[in-house]
UniProtKB/TrEMBL annotation:
This is Tetratricopeptide repeat protein. It comes from Thioclava arctica. Pfam families: SlipAM. InterPro entries: Slam_C (IPR007655), TPR-like_helical_dom_sf (IPR011990). Residues 166-465 form the Surface lipoprotein assembly modifier C-terminal domain.
Length: 465
């Protein structure tokens, strides 16, 4: 038997013929040449045979066919994809990635680009480079031209993410605010019946918040019912004061209110054997700074039990304890504890949630020591409204302090918060969409210094899958 592959001349044609002949003999099970007949196949037939070999689970036969096609037609998009598939199945990952990247360069439209990007991701994921694979799957979703191919890219992304021991998440945004310093609404307070003017930096100052954070996690142990992860958080915020704020407090700077924190934590989750749901436990050690100076070191333990019920309902019971060692003043150190209930239920229109929390902060500093109780409500719409994914939130918290300096009564705060979040999913790029948030916070306090209002607008990026 003599097999001729079309599309090459001279030495190239001889190499193609030899590669293809070897593949044909292997795929047909020939141990020796059984006939002297010439068999001539064109590129389309070679492509079809290589595809059948791959689908039949014989990449060792498909690979030389694909190599022959690529040698004859190096600018053939489909041949490069075939070569990548076959090489990947044979654990030849460098070759698989190189062929897929060549296909990406050759792609003539968005759908071909999407296919090539998914193929690059498959090669990377198979070699264990799942974080890079996730990047290429985001690109695949971005360039896809049909809902079906985009859905495939998102499905593959979630599959790879679930198997990636590394997880990296970031948050970056900007938030104009009417009260960046938590200052009082008043410009005058009364002490023992006499009025005293508040300094500008004790009053409400408007400005713009800039915030950024990154979270990195690594799975260090995983079984069917148990997951242990080690993680790190780095994040913070700084401000730019408005002209109005600077007129009130000429010596103030936005960096005076900057806050940064670094955390390391170990988390455990394991499924309950008694009823549907899971347990979770997390230990966190952290350090933070305020206004450019060290503020505190802290150690926190929190955990809980989630119960899953029929009808897409869940209830989590949680508890938290924390010790703060203040570095600005030892008297400000504190012990914190809280218990919480969180209920979630999915209905046709979306997901609504209810949260209840009660906590206590014990400190020698009267401005820190307090008791608190709070309740929150939330709703996430299941379908976009006018091209946006909407969610609503509302919360109320009551705090009871002791007697503040220059007061003759216990301080009581009643804080109300209302929020609206809109994710502009139709404006996404590589799975990241702008999120616009509106937040109104009103803290009503019987101590004038702590009576405050804040209205803020935030703009940040959010992953849509």
């Amino acid at each position: 038997m003599r097999v001729i592959g079309l599309g090459a001349t001279g030495a190239g044609r001889r190499n193609v013929a030899l590669s293809f002949a070897l593949a044909m003999m292997l795929s047909l099970g020939f141990g020796q040449i059984a006939s002297s007949r010439d068999v001539t196949l064109n590129a389309k037939q070679m492509h079809a045979l290589a595809s059948r070999e791959l689908m039949a689970g014989r990449p060792q036969n498909a690979l030389p066919l694909a190599e022959a096609l690529v040698a004859a037609h190096p600018d053939d998009f489909g041949a490069q994809l075939l070569l990548s598939y076959a090489a990947r199945d044979l654990a030849r990952f460098d070759q698989a990635e190189a062929a897929a990247r060549r296909a990406w360069d050759l792609a003539a439209n968005g759908e071909q680009k999407s296919s090539a990007a998914r193929t690059i991701a498959q090669a990377l994921s198979s070699r264990g480079a799942r974080t890079r694979a996730q990047f290429w799957l985001r690109r695949a979703a971005q360039v896809a031209q049909t809902p079906q191919s985009k859905a495939v890219a998102i499905r593959d992304f979630r599959y790879v993410r679930a198997r990636n021991p590394w997880s990296v998440n970031f948050d970056i945004g900007v938030s104009p605010s009417s009260n960046v310093n938590g200052g009082s609404n008043a410009d005058t307070i009364w002490i023992y019946g006499f009025p005293f003017a508040l300094s500008g930096d004790a009053q409400r100052l408007s400005g713009t918040e800039f915030h950024a954070s990154v979270n990195v996690e690594r799975t260090i142990a995983e079984t069917k019912g148990h997951l242990t992860r080690l993680g790190f958080n780095l994040g913070g915020r700084t401000y730019r004061l408005s002209e109005d704020a600077l007129s009130k407090a000429p010596t103030a700077r936005g960096s005076d209110y900057a806050f940064w924190a670094l955390e390391a934590y170990l988390s455990n989750r394991w499924k309950s054997t008694a009823s549907p749901g899971e347990w979770d436990l997390r230990a966190t050690a952290g350090h933070n700074e305020y206004g450019g100076a060290a503020l505190s070191n802290y150690l926190q333990f929190n955990g809980g039990r989630r119960f899953d019920f029929e009808g897409a309902r869940s209830l989590r019971i949680g508890a938290s304890i924390e010790t703060q060692w203040r570095l600005d003043s030892a008297a400000n150190s504190a012990e914190l504890g809280s218990v919480s209930l969180d209920y979630r239920q999915r209905i046709a229109a979306g997901i609504w949630s209810l949260g209840v929390v009660a906590g206590q902060v014990n400190s020698d500093a009267v401005m820190i020591d307090h008791d608190r109780v709070g309740v929150s409500l939330g709703f996430e719409f299941s379908k976009p409204i006018l091209g946006t994914e909407l969610s609503l939130s509302a919360g109320y918290e009551a705090r009871k302090y002791g007697v503040m300096p220059f007061d003759t009564f216990d301080r009581h705060d009643h804080r109300t918060t209302i929020g609206l979040s809109a994710v502009l999913s139709e404006q996404s790029y590589m799975g990241f969409a702008p999120e616009v948030g509106l937040t109104y916070t009103r803290n009503r306090s019987n101590s004038t210094l702590y009576d405050s209002t804040d209205f803020g607008v935030s703009l940040r990026l959010r992953s849509t899958f």
